[in-house]
Amino acid sequence: MRIGFAADHGGYAMKKRMAADLLAAGFEVADYGALDLDPGDDYPDFVIPLARAVASGNLDRGIALCSSGVGASIAANKVAGVRAALIHDGYSAHQGVEDDAMNIICLGSQVIGYATALELVRAFLAASFSGAERHRRRLSKVAALERGEETP
User: Fold this and answer.
1) Whose CB among 15, 17, 54, 96 lies 3.0–4.6 Å from 62's, allowing a Cys bridge?
2) Residues 11, 105: contact at Cβ < 8 Å?
3) 21 within domain boundaries
């Protein structure tokens, strides 16, 4: 599985540690930055390229980090084809993939500790979209909205 990472200064340390752990676990890992710790950097500069890579299929999944995870989530969801969510619990980490085809998990490095973050990422990466008709129907409505079509 090809996994991409993006983080600003707020998620930089957690990203470096987690990317190394996932690489050691056998995942293919791509780093979309920040490549250096810069307290003045901006999360969209890293999250948007990650989101584009996920949406285009160049990556299977993405992991975006910032201090709260909120900014990363907002930025990632501006890219059509991305279904990103800020996750704090194990149920949402797998259910977001199974029901909603979530393809980017967003985490707040100042909100949860590393052990919890790694547990959530493992649940996210282990999950698969169910393909159930009701979920496909809902996702088609989201895709129509991304195309600018009128939706209910």
Assistant:
1) 54
2) no
3) yes
Helices marked H in the chain: 12-24, 44-56, 70-76, 90-100, 114-126, 133-146
69 contacts 111 by C-beta, under 8 angstroms: yes
User: Does residue 117 fall inside a structural domain?
Assistant: yes
- d(CA 126, CA 73) in angstroms, rounded, equals 21
pLDDT single digits (tens) 31-45: 999 999 999 999 999
Does some domain include residue 152? no
Tell me the per-residue pLDDT of 65-74, one tens digit each, with 9 for 90 and over: 999 999 999 9
**Among residues 59, 61, 107, 67, which one has the least CA distance to residue 83?**
61
Distance CA 28, CA 115 (A): 21
Q: Residue with structure tokens 């085809």?
A: 101
Count CB neighbours of 36 within 10 A: 8
Residue 11 forms part of a structural domain: yes
Active site residues: 66
Residue 127 is part of which domain span?
Answer: 2-146
Q: pLDDT tens digits for 118-136?
A: 999 999 999 999 999 999 9
User: What mean pLDDT is predicted for residues 106-116?
Assistant: 98
CATH of the domain at 108: 3.40.1400.10
pLDDT beyond 90 at 152: no
